Amino acid sequence: MATYNKAAAQYQRNAVQTASPAKLTLMLYDGAVKFANIALEGLEEGDIEKAHNNIIKVQNIIVEFRSTLDMKYPVAKDFDVVYDYIYRRLVEANMKKDKEIMEEALRHIKTMRDTWKEVMRLNNAT
Fold first, then answer.
1. Most exposed of 4, 37, 61, 116 (fewest Cβ within 10 Å)?
2. What is the DSSP letter of 73?
3. Which of 105-112's residues contact partners 24+ apart within 8 Å by CB, and which partners?
């Protein structure tokens, strides 16, 4: 089992190191969706630590998205507004341990991810 875990970790490192910027962005969105779902599980199970830790992971991904925006493009300001809103909802969901707020944030993240997938498809980006 240890060998499998090492191989899986190496595969993941290679995937990240060789991915295009478009693919890295998609991987971040997928990570945010994954951690948001784990946070929701934690909220449903009453596992506050699990919920908190995974909401923080989602928040960190949103912070990363915001930090990479190139504000010389007008659309970046629009993305910043959306990311700011999602971030604030994540903070609120974490403070209140509110499943509905977390579900709302997840819906927005999924919409952003699906939009990004479509952009990649239209631009034949991999």
1. 4
2. S
3. 105/36, 105/58, 106/33, 106/36, 106/37, 106/40, 108/82, 109/29, 109/32, 109/33, 109/36, 109/58, 110/33, 112/29, 112/82, 112/86
Going from the C-alpha of 125 to that of each of 15, 23, 97, 120, the distances in angstroms are 15, 8, 38, 5
Residue 124 binned pLDDT confidence (cut-offs 50, 70, 90): confident
Mean pLDDT of 63-69: 96
Q: Which residues of 65-97 are buried (b: 16+ CB within 10 A; e: fewer)?
A: bbeeeeeeeeeeeebeebbeebbebbeebbeeb
23, 29, 33, 95 from 49: Cα distances, Å = 30, 22, 18, 12
Is residue 114 over pLDDT 70?
yes
pTM of the complete model? 0.86
Residues, the chain, total? 126
- For residue 81, is pLDDT > 90? yes
